[in-house]
Design brief:
With 227 residues, the chain is an alpha/beta fold. The chain is 38% helix and 15% strand. The longest helix has 17 residues, at 57-73. The radius of gyration is 16 Å and the shape is globular. The protein starts with 5 loop residues before the first helix and ends in a 5-residue tail after the last helix. Bound molecules: ligand LCLJCK34 and 4-methyl-5-hydroxyethylthiazole phosphate. Its cofactor is Mg(2+).
């Protein structure tokens, strides 16, 4: 029997978007990015993305390998999908589960062509038109935001909860909200149609990442996502 590809696994379990941890090395202190990512998964994150805006492709390749090794050491390997932000080259080099691309990055169609049918390709969308185009180009899921102002990406365009609802209604692929999502704002995702929340600072800026992620996961387990 052949093993399922990351994309096939994801299609069978889109609920893996429930609490999507988007990593950031801005708040490491004495910690390593690999240990922070492992703590997020231990705390209940259901999806992981390596996002390091200042890193070169070579650095991303090393970081991905280090995180994968740490997950393995902690018995967490393969527990959640693990994709790379923006850099298709790095994703190809390490055999990542997939990639997440924004509107000004390599196109979804190109990422799909280079990574193949077995990889997960996520795309950022801020409008219904972008969402429909990404779906048509073969995206597996959409990241929609910024829903709330955030210091993590102050320049991110605002996306209203109303537009989020319209996007969820317009596409058949799953959607995660992103931007300013934390313990105080997660409840706003109720009844929008999203499959989950993508979170950077509320996980990676926390002093105790396991505990912060556990709290967010408990909240997400209780949010009624049905429309
Ligand atoms: C899940 C998810 N959604 C949206 C984004 C934003 O991606 P992008 O538009 O490429 O912006 P940067 O992350 O590169 O600043 C994301 N990374 N993940
Ligand atoms: C990458 C990205 N894209 C839109 S908002 C955002 C940052 C979200 O970070 P945070 O969860 O800390 O608000």
């Amino acid at each position: 029997m052949t093993a399922l590809t990351p994309r096939e696994r994801f299609r069978r379990a889109p609920e893996s978007l429930l609490l999507y941890a988007v990593s950031d090395d801005a708040w490491l202190g004495e910690r390593t990015l690999a240990s922070c990512c492992a703590q997020a998964v231990r705390g209940g994150a259901t999806f992981l993305q390596l996002r390091a805006k200042r890193a070169t492709t070579k650095e991303l390749i090393s970081a991905y390998a280090e995180i994968r090794d740490e997950l393995e050491r902690e018995g967490l390997a393969g527990k959640v999908p693990f994709v790379i932000d923006d850099d298709v080259e790095a994703a190809l080099a390490v055999g990542a589960d997939g990639v997440h691309v924004g509107q000004s990055d390599e196109s979804c169609a190109s990422a799909r062509a280079r990574l193949g049918e077995g990889a997960i390709v996520g795309v950022s969308a801020q409008t219904v038109e972008q969402a429909l185009a990404a779906q048509a180009a073969g995206a597996d899921y959409l990241g929609v935001g910024a829903l709330f102002k955030t210091a993590t990406k102050p320049e991110a365009a605002d996306v209203s909860l109303r537009t989020l609802r319209e996007i969820c209604a317009a596409v058949s692929i799953p959607v995660v909200g992103i931007g300013g999502l934390n313990a105080s704002t997660l409840a706003s995702l109720a009844h929008t149609g999203v499959h989950g929340a993508a979170v950077v600072s509320a996980i990676f800026a926390a002093g105790d990442i396991v505990s912060a992620t556990r709290d967010l996961r408990r909240i997400m387990d209780g949010v009624d996502l049905l429309v």
